[in-house]
Model the fold of this input.
Amino acid sequence: EIVLTQSPGTLSLSPGDRATLSCRASQSVRDNYLAWYQQKPGQAPRLLIYGASIRATGIPDRFSGSGSGTDFTLIISRLEPEDFAVYYCQQYGTSPRMYTFGQGAKLEIK
Amino acid sequence: EVQLVESGGGFVQPGGSLRLSCEASGLTFSNYWMSWLRQVPGKGLEWVANIKQDGSEKYYLDSVKGRFTISRDNAKNSLHLQMTSLRVEDTAVYYCATDIRVFDSWGQGALVTVSS
Done:
C-alpha cells in the first residue's frame, strides 16, 4: 500500500498569498497518477487536479500541480477567500484498482 | 448535470447491519465504475469499495472485506453498499462517487453512526 503524507498539516496565509502544499508518497506513484481535492466544511470533496498537473474541468488556473515519483506539490498562486479549505492528495496508480489518500492539509486564513 | 444521492444512513448498534443506496442521474450510469468512500467527521477521506460497470470486478478496503458488499443495478441507476458486522470505527459519512480512477462527481454523503 502506498502511504501519502501531506505537509504542512495546517498552513496559515492571507488572501493574495501563494500557497504551497506538499504530498509525499512512500513509494513511487506509477505514471504520476496523483490527484488533488478541495473540501469545504459540510461539502463533498471537489476534484482539482489529476495526473499530477492536469486541472479538472472548471478549475481556475491559479491552481497548479507538479511533481513526479514520490514528491508532488499543489500551488495556489494567489489565494482567494474561497480557497481556504482542506486539501487532500490521492494516488490511483496501483493495481488492482484501489486507492489511498493523504491525511489532508488545512489552509486557513491568517 | 450529474447528481448522486445517497440514502440509508442512520444509527445502528455494533454488530448490526445497514444498507446504503446511491441513486444516479445526469449520466450514463452503466458506463462508470462506481466507488464508496467514507470520512469520519472531522477526519480524512478513505476509499471503501468499488465496482466495475457490469459488476464483474469489485475491490474492497482490507478492513471492510468480508463485512461489506458493493453492488449495482444498472437498470435502476443505483449503487448499494450492504454493511454487516458493523463496528464503532465504521462510523463515518459515506459518499458514493463516479470512479474514473479519480472521483469527479460525489454525492452529498450519508451519515452512519455505530454506537451502543
Remarks:
- Chain A has no helices and eleven strands.
- The CA atoms of residues 94 and 106 of chain A lie 26 Å apart.
- The two ends of chain A are 36 Å apart (CA to CA).
